[in-house]
Write a structure and sequence with these properties.
By secondary structure, this protein is α/β, with parallel strands linked by helices. The protein contains 14 helices and 11 strands. It has a 7-stranded mixed β-sheet, with helices on both faces. β8 and β9 form a beta hairpin.
Length: about 350
């Protein structure tokens, strides 16, 4: 009953098998391995983007920070939601790798940025005034940190505002696969066709050991990304072990199968919890995360039986206190979350 995060899950066996295969013999370093050629070709095919530049890094923070460094100058802004990962969970990495670009924080329900909020923020960023930060890039997260999903039309509406002001758009897709299968859209419809310039394409939260792809739909940005990746110390010498993971991930659409499994598990968990008196969702369940509140007594039973998850948004909440006080939590399902552990968890909450 582990619901702390999908990145706490094990690696899919097919990925481990691919790593074992990649470990046979010698291969050229630094991304010149044949597996990387397969990965690049497959991602271009998946995204219907034959000219896209594709690179691999080991963490989502690296993918986001280096991508944004290619989009925003040190004296510019990065418009993002105040609950976004780049704001809350990356220890200033975007600011560091951009050389000081300022995160301008936007509000919005379920950690989603609205076109109206973006427009207001852009308009309030004064231009041609040497004492003020200048307009830079826009970053959205799909699925969001509150488990919500932007559909292609929503992405396009945000991108349209960005385009009016000449601003590039980055998508943090640490859970891109979960968002995609939730909408039924194609990868192209969710990204470049909707105006996204650069995508951080997640893998670690969806069954990989540790690899993310950066997809730059404008290949003119490729050389800068390569230089920034090297300068930042994120160009892997034995790159084939990144390539092998991503190749296995994309083979036979494993990435989509794992995301569907995680989303289905979250739907079952959500339905089960809502059947418990006193339980309500804090955010809509749209991908593989459930945000819900229920009485402390249910939390106590579940955690004493070994369930693991985070209280949310008050991560300092405790099991001490009145049994009937409602405490909210975040529960994240992974590709291998089972019906049995979900049903057991719901039973403990209800008992």
């Amino acid at each position: 009953m582990i619901f702390t995060s999908d990145n706490a899950s094990p690696v899919h066996p097919q990925v481990l098998e691919a790593l074992h295969g990649a470990n046979q013999g010698f291969a050229m370093p630094y991304g010149a391995d044949p597996l990387m050629d397969r990965v690049r070709a497959r991602l271009r095919e998946i995204f219907e983007a034959p000219e896209a530049a594709v690179y691999l890094v080991a963490t989502g923070t690296t993918a986001n920070a280096l991508s944004l460094a290619c989009l925003a100058a040190p004296w510019q802004t990065i418009y993002c939601h105040r609950d976004s990962h780049i704001q809350m969970d990356e220890c200033g990495a975007p600011e560091f790798y951009t050389g000081g670009a300022k995160l301008v924080l936007l509000d919005g329900a379920d950690a989603k940025v609205s076109p109206e909020a973006l427009r207001a923020a852009v308009e309030s960023t004064h231009q041609g005034f040497v004492h003020a930060v200048q307009r830079g890039a826009v970053s959205i997260t799909n699925a969001t940190e509150a488990g919500a999903v932007y559909g292609p039309d929503e992405v396009a509406a945000i991108s349209a505002v960005a385009r009016e002001y000449g601003l590039p758009v980055h998508m943090d897709g640490a859970r891109f696969a979960n968002a995609l299968v939730s909408t039924g859209a194609s990868p192209a419809e969710m990204t470049w066709k909707a105006g996204v310039d650069v995508l951080s394409f997640g893998g670690t939260k969806n069954g990989l050991m540790g690899v993310e792809a950066v997809v730059l739909f404008d290949p003119a940005r490729a050389w800068e990304f390569e230089l920034r990746r090297k300068r930042a110390g994120h160009l892997f010498s034995k790159h084939r072990y990144l390539s092998a993971q991503m190749a296995a991930y994309l083979e036979g659409d494993l990435w989509l199968d794992m995301a569907r499994a995680a989303n289905r598990a979250a739907a079952r968990l959500s339905e089960g919890l809502l059947s418990v008196p006193g339980t309500a969702l804090v955010h809509p369940r749209e991908a593989n995360a459930v945000f819900a509140g229920w009485p402390r007594a249910g939390h106590r039973r579940a955690q004493e039986a070994g369930a693991a998850y985070y209280f949310w948004p008050d991560m300092n909440a405790t099991l001490d206190g009145p049994d009937d006080e409602i405490l909210s939590a975040r529960l994240v399902c992974s590709w291998c979350t089972t019906d049995a552990e979900i049903d057991r968890f719901v039973q403990l909450v209800r008992a």
